[in-house]
């Protein structure tokens, strides 16, 4: 633990910037990668330190950003404070705004991060804290060595390697522009040094802004230790400024999420076509085929197969299930069940153990029991079906009368014929059967056979007399001739 005694740990996440280059009506930090807004990745990394205070500085689009943070706070079950920076006067000013929401007599350590740097991990912040306390620094900055340092603040070191200052690109001289070690914008500060430094920074620079980076040279000038921790994994300090970077960091995060699950025992056939949100959980021996997107809080049990070509959002798939070419959301699939190919699971679908939702079947707000099968070409909406029943091909629950929705209840061990319409509200009892083409308008008692519609009539010679000269009439005449010759 880097924090001695009752020293406090505070984290400040800067997220007030406009993000003009996104060219979007959505605030930059609310653009998602891996299913979570950029700012959520940043806040989760900071929250991983379990700090005493966590404050996010919001500005542009603050109503929407604050709303998201409120939901996140309850998901994380911790306090997330927001501080408003109405005008973006620079990173130093932003941190001052953040600190104004924290206790007046701040002590301990303050970590500063950015809301648009999504790949930063808690482990890196822990390493920064450890370096900060073990070396007795007043300020420790996280840096990276990059191929193209254009635009970044440069880390200026003395001959002993100590950090003397950070010089912004626009303020740098020719020699300083050659420096490839850049400021990530992530720091650990002694709280008192930060508060004192922020009261002394000025806007006498190329951008006329209050630079947080000037706190380092002020501390150094006061004779305090200023150090740096080089982050070898440069992806972790990369920020998003436009949608090209959004896609690039999104792809890298996906690659990292896939690596983690593969090391935990998941098989991924084609890492280029499988996309997993950060909130997805997978068990051992899950097989992900080509073209799979698992979103939100989707979880997949041991030995289940997903794909090819399947998108699941907030779906729970139990062990051993197979889900092929399916689009589903807010649903649950039982152990050993089979779904697809070409199935559409809408919210509220629950399929029991070893059940089947087959080809060209749409299901909504329905419970389908253990071992029950809906194999072909059907719509099941607002229905409850018991165990070990079979719904014949091309069946529809007629759940909507144009005004209100009604439920269909089908019991256990039921066999319904093909092309049945269940005109809800209606109940089919346990062990009942129904004939092909039945329109079930009345309840079917347990064990009954339901049939509807009159007997079939054939009007002999109708086509030849009523549709003379058509191809159908010619074909009928030819068939008649063959029949006559045979008799
Ligand atoms: C800043 C650093 C620079 C570093 C770079 C890393 C300063 C003076 N410079 O550059 O050394 O290499 O980050 O990306 O700190 N923000 C606010 N309010 C403001 C200004 C910024 O909330 O008034 C937020 C932005 O939303 C963003 C972050 O702070 O998340 C950084 O701001 P940005 O303008 O992107 O950084 P630079 O000033 O270019
Ligand atoms: Mg700036």
Automatic annotation (TrEMBL):
Give its localization. Answer: Cytoplasm
Q: Which residues bind Mg(2+)?
A: 116, 241
Q: Look up the record and name the pathway of this protein.
A: Nucleotide-sugar biosynthesis; UDP-N-acetyl-alpha-D-glucosamine biosynthesis; N-acetyl-alpha-D-glucosamine 1-phosphate from alpha-D-glucosamine 6-phosphate (route II): step 2/2; Nucleotide-sugar biosynthesis; UDP-N-acetyl-alpha-D-glucosamine biosynthesis; UDP-N-acetyl-alpha-D-glucosamine from N-acetyl-alpha-D-glucosamine 1-phosphate: step 1/1; Bacterial outer membrane biogenesis; LPS lipid A biosynthesis
Q: Which reaction does it catalyse?
A: alpha-D-glucosamine 1-phosphate + acetyl-CoA = N-acetyl-alpha-D-glucosamine 1-phosphate + CoA + H(+); N-acetyl-alpha-D-glucosamine 1-phosphate + UTP + H(+) = UDP-N-acetyl-alpha-D-glucosamine + diphosphate
Q: Where is this region: N-acetyltransferase?
A: 265-487
Q: Where is this region: Linker?
A: 244-264
**Where, by residue number, does acetyl-CoA bind?**
393, 399-400, 436
Q: Which residues bind UDP-N-acetyl-alpha-D-glucosamine?
A: 14-17, 28, 85, 90-91, 114-116, 153, 168, 183, 241, 346, 364, 379, 390
Q: Which residues form the active site?
A: 376
Cofactor binding description: Binds 1 Mg(2+) ion per subunit.
Its EC number(s): 2.7.7.23, 2.3.1.157
Q: Which co-factors does it depend on?
A: Mg(2+)
User: What enzyme category does the UniProt record give?
Assistant: transferase
Instruction: Show the GO MF annotations.
Output: UDP-N-acetylglucosamine diphosphorylase activity
Sequence segments annotated as region (Pyrophosphorylase): 1-243
Keywords of the record, alphabetical order, are: Acyltransferase, Cell shape, Cell wall biogenesis/degradation, Cytoplasm, Magnesium, Metal-binding, Multifunctional enzyme, Nucleotidyltransferase, Peptidoglycan synthesis, Repeat, Transferase
Looking at the record, the residues that make up the MobA-like NTP transferase domain are 12-144
Functional summary from the UniProt entry? Catalyzes the last two sequential reactions in the de novo biosynthetic pathway for UDP-N-acetylglucosamine (UDP-GlcNAc). The C-terminal domain catalyzes the transfer of acetyl group from acetyl coenzyme A to glucosamine-1-phosphate (GlcN-1-P) to produce N-acetylglucosamine-1-phosphate (GlcNAc-1-P), which is converted into UDP-GlcNAc by the transfer of uridine 5-monophosphate (from uridine 5-triphosphate), a reaction catalyzed by the N-terminal domain.
Tell me the subunit arrangement.
Homotrimer.
Q: Per the similarity annotation, which family is this?
A: In the C-terminal section; belongs to the transferase hexapeptide repeat family.
Q: What is the protein name for this chain? A: Bifunctional protein GlmU
Name of the gene this protein is made from: glmU
